[in-house]
Structures are given as C-alpha cells and as structure tokens.
C-alpha cells in the first residue's frame, strides 16, 4: 500500500511515542493472526473524533476496520420535535436549547426548518450552556412560558433529573425529553442489522461513567462480542483496539474496562437514583431508523407537570423525517460512511448542514467534514470500505 504524505506524517508522529509504537506493533501482530476482516464499532461520537482527528484509521492493518456507531444524540433526535418547537417559538413560547441542537433540521421542507431559522424569523429561541441556565432564565421571567429541549444520552439526563428531584425547577419551565438510552440501540443494531458484521465494540466512556460498565456486559455474554469501555485519548483508543483483537484471537469475548480512571462497575449511583426517580423508560423513535424498545425516557408520574407533551396536551408523533438524499440513518448505524452520501461537502457542509449528522460536533459527517484537511479523503475511504 502506497502511503500518502499525510498518512506518513501521522505514522511518524506515532512512532515518536514509544507507548504508541509498542501498542501499534502489538495490534499489527494480533491482526496478522486473524485471517479475515475485523469490524470494530466505536459507539461514541467523541471516540469517532479521536479516531478521525488523530488519523488512527490510517494506522490500522488492512484487515482492521473502524466503524463509527450511533453515538450522536442530536443525529437521532426526531424531526417532529424540531417541527413542534419551531412552530411554538413563533407563537411566543420561549424555547431554550443547547447550541448543538440549534441548527438541527426538522422534518419539513419549508422554512424555517430549524430553531436557528425560526430565530431569524422572529421566533423566541435562546441557546443555553446547560439546564442551570434554563432554570435561571425561567426564574428571572416568571410571566413567560419556557420549553427546554432536552437532547442527549444518559450522560445528559442527570442535568435535568437532579434539579427536578431537588425541586429547584420553576413551573414556567417545561422539558421536552428527547433523551435516548444507549444499550438498547446496540442491541437493536445487532438484532436487526446483522449485515453490519460487528466483531468488537468500543463502548462509550462518558455514558459508562453514569450507567457503569456492567451495562455493556450483554455484548460479550449474549452476543459473544469483545467489548472495551475506553477513554478518549488516542492511546486509550489504541489500547481498546488491541484488547479487542486479543480477545478475538483467544476466542474469549469479555468486557474490559480500559477507562478505570473514570468508569466504575455500576457508574454514578447518585446520578442514576435521580434519573430513575424523575424519568421512566419508554419505547422511543430514533430519527429515520425505528422505534427501539426501551430506548427513551419520559417523566415519571411525580414529574409529569414538567413534561412538555403533558403540559401542552400534545401527542408524540412519528413523522417522515429522513431528508431526501441524506444517508444519516445508515451512517448512524455504521452501514454507510459520510463518503457514501452524494451530498457530503456539496449541499451539506458544517456551515450549512442539510442532514442531522452534519449538525453536532458528535455527528460522524461533521467530524469527517472538519477533518478532511487533516486526513486525506482516500485514506478514510480505504479503511472504511
Ligand atoms: S453528508 Fe449530510 S446529507 Fe449526507 S448523510 Fe451526512 S448529514 Fe446526511
């Protein structure tokens, strides 16, 4: 294989680090004992950023493929939620959103398609850094009705659950719980999309710090898939890949916690207690994909008065929200790469995102788009095809 200049520079950079060199040599050795292609899925968008930004794909032996997984909550947030909030913001309700969801397109072709566009048309939309900002704004403006757009995985849920449990959320602040749970989507992917052919999983570090590494035990125990909960430094990811290859060679799938400095077996009990007092598990729709059993969270009876759908007597609906030409659902499930999308870096760019995977910094399309100057496109394509 002829190396491009960029690949060569990345290789030289890693060779300067004795630890990285040792791990890479060990990866090469393990890979040579596996006479087949091995697909390792990194669940989390932040892992995808590390892999792409630091050129880790280009360092892998030819038979090791690193596949981006469903770890971007903005990418899978239903378009219907955006449609509703966009309309309400134009009717005078004040929508509070994280910056990551601000440009998320809804399911409708007409303008305004996002909260960002709604704000340009006079809609009441404010970007907040966290739920504590949403509480402060609502407390300062008691005569106004606010809606917080709660997008995220288990990592984000405690930020609303703890203030709700502690009684510090004013009644003029409702929460649209777009929260989604991560283990059920992995189960769904393995059951419904065996064509993804996943041989190993790098499980999410941040999420696991809340839910605990035991939550991923089903992967080796039920599906015989080697799994490593990993941190986000390049060496963390390399170690995770090495551990997965070793387990594959030994034919002894298990769960390794590489991120011991942060992740405990049962996670953060304080956060989990608050989460499961305030929320209850429901089946939930993932944008463009499916309704996934047990993968969502709605407010429990005690906290229903804060629930957006309850407060405004609206029904959750599933609308057609796969945008024409956009391959985001397949990218999210690891069945396609951004380079398989004809719109990538043409009509869909980080400054003008068309599809949901180009919006958030955790979206695979956005990550690949922002790292094209760092990584040669062909190098990415080689290792993902
Ligand atoms: S490049 Fe844009 S349009 Fe294509 S899959 Fe990604 S987000 Fe969707």
Describe what this molecule looks like in 3D.
- This protein is of the alpha/beta class.
- The protein has a domain at 79-181 and 268-311: Rossmann fold, CATH 3.40.50.11740.
- The protein is 39% helix and 16% strand.
- It is built from 17 helices and eleven strands.
- The strands form three sheets. It has a five-stranded parallel sheet.
- Strand 5 (146-150), helix 8 (157-165) and strand 6 (173-177) form a beta-alpha-beta unit.
- The longest helix has 17 residues, at 234-250.
- The protein starts with a helix and ends with a helix.
- The site of iron/sulfur cluster has 14 residues, from helix 15.
List the keywords:
17 helices, about 375 residues, four-stranded parallel sheet, five-stranded parallel sheet, Rossmann fold, about 15% strand, about 40% helix, alpha/beta, 11 strands
List the helices and strands and how they pair.
Elements: H1 5-15, H2 18-32, E1 38-44, H3 45-53, E2 64-71, H4 79-90, E3 94-98, H5 99-102, H6 115-120, E4 125-128, H7 131-140, E5 146-150, H8 157-165, E6 173-177, H9 182-192, E7 200-203, H10 205-211, H11 218-223, E8 227-229, H12 234-250, E9 255-257, H13 269-278, E10 279-286, E11 290-299, H14 308-311, H15 328-332, H16 364-370, H17 377-384
Helix pairs in contact: 2-12, 8-13
The structure holds iron/sulfur cluster.
């Amino acid at each position: 294989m002829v190396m491009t200049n960029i690949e060569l520079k990345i290789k030289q950079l890693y060779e300067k680090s004795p630890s990285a060199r040792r791990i890479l040599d060990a990866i090469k050795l393990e890979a040579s004992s596996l006479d087949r292609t091995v697909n390792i899925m990194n669940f989390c968008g932040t892992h995808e950023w590390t892999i792409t930004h630091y050129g880790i794909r280009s360092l892998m032996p030819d038979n090791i493929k690193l596949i981006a997984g469903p770890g971007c909550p903005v990418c899978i947030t239903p378009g219907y939620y955006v449609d509703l909030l966009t309309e309400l913001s134009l009717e005078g309700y004040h929508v509070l959103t994280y910056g990551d969801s601000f440009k998320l397109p809804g399911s409708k072709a007409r303008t305004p398609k996002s909260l960002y566009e709604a704000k340009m048309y006079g809609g009441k939309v404010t970007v907040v850094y966290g739920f504590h900002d949403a509480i402060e704004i609502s407390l300062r403006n008691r005569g106004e009705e606010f809606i917080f757009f709660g997008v995220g995985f288990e990592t984000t849920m405690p930020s609303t659950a703890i203030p709700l449990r502690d009684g510090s959320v004013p009644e003029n602040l409702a929460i649209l719980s777009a929260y989604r749970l991560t283990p059920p989507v992995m189960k769904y992917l393995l059951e419904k999309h065996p064509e993804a052919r996943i041989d190993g999983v790098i499980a999410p570090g941040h999420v696991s710090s809340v839910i605990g590494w035991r939550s991923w035990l089903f992967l080796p125990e039920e599906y015989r898939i080697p799994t490593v909960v990993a941190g986000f430094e390049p060496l963390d990811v390399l170690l995770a890949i090495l551990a997965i290859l070793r387990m594959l060679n030994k034919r002894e799938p298990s769960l390794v916690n590489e991120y011991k400095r942060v992740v405990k077996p049962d996670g953060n009990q304080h956060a989990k207690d608050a989460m499961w007092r305030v929320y209850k598990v429901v089946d939930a729709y993932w944008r463009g994909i499916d309704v996934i059993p047990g993968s969502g969270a709605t407010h429990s009876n005690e906290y229903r008065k804060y629930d957006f759908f309850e407060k405004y007597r609206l029904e959750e609906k599933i609308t057609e929200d796969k945008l024409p030409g956009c391959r985001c659902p397949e990218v999210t499930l690891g069945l396609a790469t951004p380079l398989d999308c004809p719109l990538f870096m043409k009509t869909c760019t980080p400054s003008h995102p068309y599809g949901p995977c180009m919006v958030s910094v955790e979206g695979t399309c956005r990550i690949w788009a922002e790292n094209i100057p760092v990584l040669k496109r062909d190098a990415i394509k080689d290792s993902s095809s």
